[in-house]
Amino acid sequence: MDNLIDIKGVTHAYKTKAGPFPVLRDLNISIPQHSFCAVVGPSGCGKSTLTRLIAGLMFPDQGEVWLHGELVKSPRKTVGMAFQNPVLLEWRTILQNVILPLEIVAPMMPKAQKEARARELLAMVGLEGFEGKRPSELSGGMRQRASLCRALVHKPDIIILDEPFGALDAFTREDLWQTMHQLRANEPFTALLITHDLRESVYLGDQVVVLSGRPATTQYVMSVDIPGPRPLEMLYEPDTVERLAVLRREIQIAQGRAVA
Ligand SMILES: Nc1ncnc2c1ncn2[C@@H]1O[C@H](COP(=O)(O)OP(=O)(O)OP(=O)(O)O)[C@@H](O)[C@H]1O
């Protein structure tokens, strides 16, 4: 299968007053089309930096980021993003918030078509009937569902999820994990998820990439070859428990708290 994303030997340092601050070192990640890659690693190792490089908001000092066979050299409109804080615009309704990327990427698309596309996604995530509400009228979980719709509405090449479930309670989080599987089953997409939650990484990921401590390099890659939509019960099966133990150990090694 062709890779949608190829991160090849990426090394990057922030320029600070005190000199270069190395964040990524010879990082390699490949994500096939329509697959879901979860990235875990110690706090501050460079995960968000990686997302900025993929979105073309920054460029690496060395190495290359390829998206759909094209070298990333400028900000990409074809990337959808969702963050821990959904950042919905309060002066717009939920429907208008979800439509926003279409206004930028497909300004000539008829309004009715934009609305139909947004409504279709909102229905998929269980937000039918809430299209006319303002963000503040929705719960945190509902806002995050709307934010996922906004990230997907323009059928982006890739959706980057930077800890979108981190601030939710455990039950809502599990609901949203299932919603992610449902969304993928309805309409395949390619995703890169940054998370601190190992269970989330195994439940959602087709591969889990463990980054080392800063400067981050690819320390370990686990393939999770289980077709979706996956039942939540999967999390309690011996195979998953074993996977979690392996990942936990790799994170401890990354943090310097265990020896390889
Ligand atoms: N613009 C910047 N200038 C200088 N240093 C930066 C800049 N942005 C991030 N950093 C530093 O780079 C390192 C990596 O930051 P990044 O946000 O990519 O890490 P992260 O793995 O996403 O962190 P966390 O897991 O805590 O969210 C951190 O030490 C951070 O302080």
> CATH superfamily of the domain at 1-76 and 197-260, called what?
P-loop containing nucleotide triphosphate hydrolases
Question: Given this structure, which CATH class of the domain at 1-76 and 197-260 is correct?
Answer: Alpha Beta
* Secondary-structure element order, N to C: EEEHEEEHHHEHEHEEH
| Unreliable residue runs | none
| Secondary-structure content class | alpha/beta
Fraction of helical residues: 25-40%
Basic shape: globular
Question: Which CATH architecture of the domain at 1-76 and 197-260 is right?
Answer: 3-Layer(aba) Sandwich
The CATH topology of the domain at 1-76 and 197-260 corresponds to: Rossmann fold
As laid out across the biggest beta sheet, the strand order is: 6-7-8-3-9-10
Cα end-to-end separation: 32 Å
> How many extended strands?
10
Strand content: 25-35%
Measured on Cα atoms, how large is the radius of gyration?
Answer: 18 Å
Bound molecules: adenosine-5'-triphosphate
Explain what this protein looks like in three dimensions:
One of its GO terms (molecular function) is ATP hydrolysis activity. Residues 5-238 form the ABC transporter domain. InterPro entries: AAA+_ATPase (IPR003593), ABC_transporter-like_ATP-bd (IPR003439), ABC_transporter-like_CS (IPR017871), ABC_transporter_ATP-bind (IPR050166), P-loop_NTPase (IPR027417). By secondary structure, this protein is an alpha/beta fold. The strands form two sheets. A six-stranded mixed beta sheet has the order 6-7-8-3-9-10, sandwiched between helices. It is built from seven helices and ten strands. The radius of gyration is 18 Å and the shape is globular. Bound molecules: adenosine-5'-triphosphate. Adenosine-5'-triphosphate (ATP) is lined by residues 14, 16, 21, 23, 43-49, 214. The site of adenosine-5'-triphosphate (ATP) has 12 residues, from strand 1, strand 2 and helix 1.
